[in-house]
């Protein structure tokens, strides 16, 4: 399943970043086995960004 993230507002971007970081933490402690597909896709998409909005 493909997710399009190109139309995210800065607020939506930050929410996804925070969710991704939280899930990465759960992954590290073994609480979850893998990232949810949407967050995994978001992580891949984010790697390709050349411009990163300023973090709040």
UniProtKB/TrEMBL annotation:
Official protein name in the record: Uncharacterized protein
Organism per entry: Polynucleobacter victoriensis
